[in-house]
Every structure is written in C-alpha cells, then in structure tokens.
Amino acid sequence: MALIVKIGANLRDFDRQMRRVTREISYLGNKLQGVGKQLTTKVTLPILGIGAASTKLGMEFEKSMSEVSAVTGATGEEFDKLEKLAREMGSKTSKSASEAADAIKYMGLAGWDTSQIMKGLEPVLRLSEAGNIDLGRASDLVTDSMSALGLTTEELRTYLDQMAQTSRKSNTNIDQLAEAMIVAGGTLKNLNVPLDEANALFGILANRGKKGSEAGNSLNSILINLTSGAGQAGKAMEELGLSAFDSNGKFKGIGNVLKELKEKLSGLTEEQKKYLSCYDRWKNSNRYIKRLTRWCRKRI
C-alpha cells in the first residue's frame, strides 16, 4: 500500500513537471515566432527592398549606357572606357553612375568624341555640384557655350574656373553666365575677345540687372555698335575719328574702345554733342561705359 501511494505521488509530481515544461516550451515557441516576424519586417523585407532598388538602379544605368552607345557610336574598348568612367564618377562625386552616363550622352550629342568626354566629364560634374545645376542641364550649357565661343576641351578647366570666379564676385550664377555666353559667343569669338574679358563684361552687366540671354543680347548690341561701322553708331564713331580696330585690323578690345570713346566725348562741348549722330544712345549707355572704363583702367 505504501508503495502504491509513493508511486502515485511520484506520478503526480511528474505530471506537474511535464505541464510546466510544456508551458515553457509553448512560451518559448511564441517568443521565437515573434522574433521571426520581427526579422521578416525589420531585416528580411528591407534587404529585399535594397535588392529591388539596386536592380532598378542597375537597369537605369544599363539603359543610360545603351543610349551613350547609340549617340557616341562607341563600341568595344571605347565603350568600356566610358562605362568605367561613369561608374567611377558615380562613386567619387555626389552624382550617380546613371547621371554621369546621361552627361556623357549629352556630350556625345554635342559632337564630343571619347577622348574629349574622358577629359571633360569630371569638370562638368564638379560644375554641376558647385552651381547646384541639374547634370544634364550643366552638360548642355557647357557644350553649347564652348561651341559658341569656339573653345576646345583643352580650355575647359580654365573656362569653368573663370565662370565660377565670376559667379562668386558678381550678381549672377553659372547657369546665367553660360546662357549669356551661348547668345554672345559667336560675336566674342569673331572679335577674339579673351575669356577673362568676356566674364568681366558679363559680371558688370549682371550687377546692372542684365543676366543670362538678356546680358548676351546687350553685349552683342554693344559690340556690334562699336565694330560694325554701320548705322548711326558707325557714323558717330567716324565723326569722332574713333575705330574699334587697330592698324592691323585687330579688335582693340571693348575696354580700350570704350576708354577712347569716353575720352573723345569728354573733349566735346555740350553744343557739339547735340550734333553728334547717336549721342543720345551713347549717353543712355553711359552707366555701362563708366563701369566698363573703370574695369579697363585696372587692366591697362
């Protein structure tokens, strides 16, 4: 009898132990299930999201490079160089590899070959960063303005450095300066106006409220009035015995011409000025002449 009681007690104790173990296993199972859900939400899904985003970026890059190939005609080794360059710029600048590839495409559209693109891409990327300009827009502005001015890629860094300096020192920005260069570039090129002089002129015009294409049109008008020898302006220059060109037929430079013009006008009486063809136009432009002449005195 005592043995039966002892065995029964042991069985009841065993049953209690088993129920406790079962509860603990169930609790542990619920905990593990919760951890599993958290891992899915906080780890697995984000990893999948990163993978999807990476796949999308890769597809965008491949699409951009396909367009580069179509526009530039680059194949084989040349294409590999451009692809490597785009990836490199994507890793060392704030722009993505796809954006760099798009910039290459715009350069190709402007007629730049692989060698020119290799030299020009990073400066254009840096310009885009410095001027906070969309990279495609920056590429267009640079290639179009350089084409208008007749510049080569060897002159690219100097050109961009001077534009950056002008934008810092005057009331304009790189985007507006490039727009002005595009409009007036042909005239500046034909007259062999130096880059630093062109930038200084646009800086002065910007400080007077004329920027972008408006500044380009204004400078075009000034240069044509000074150099064409036609119309009232040409007649007035002739009456003053003033020429925009030296004895070798070379343009004296706008600073020198305006300085001479100011000196000629200062030697006239008010009565004489009344009879001077187009004097009113010169008088209305006097605020520009004064500023340009002050700039000229610093250089001559």
From TrEMBL:
All copies of domain Phage tail tape measure protein, residue ranges: 84-274
Signal peptide span: none
Keyword Repeat assigned: no
A Pfam family the protein falls into: PhageMin_Tail
Keyword Nucleotide-binding: no
Superkingdom as given in the UniProt entry: Bacteria
Keywords: Viral release from host cell
NCBIfam families: tape_meas_TP901
Protein name as annotated: Phage tail tape measure protein, TP901 family, core region
Species, as recorded: Paramaledivibacter caminithermalis (strain DSM 15212 / CIP 107654 / DViRD3)
